[in-house]
Amino acid sequence: MLLQVGTETTKKYYEPQLVSIGPYHHENTNLKSFDKFKFQFIREYVKSCRPYSITDLYNKVADVAIQARNCYAEGTDIDDTDFTQMMFLDGCFIL
Length: 95
Prior knowledge:
Blueprint: H1 2-5, H2 35-48, H3 54-69, H4 80-94
Helix pairs in contact: 2-4, 3-4
């Protein structure tokens, strides 16, 4: 909704400046440089989840990825595999 009513002045309040989370800004090249840090955080997060493996955690995300995708008001151009990977990466980063 904000994207529809926003102006260039208000855009700064909802446009990410450093990191993308979720599909709306996933392909923003200005935010891609932070992805390397996401992977560092994920490694640490996965270590903290032992005895679960990275595969166990990924499969948990894959189990709910379609439901998560349906929560977005607009469709995305990301295929199901890439969407699941993005949700895993972003979810682990947030946690």
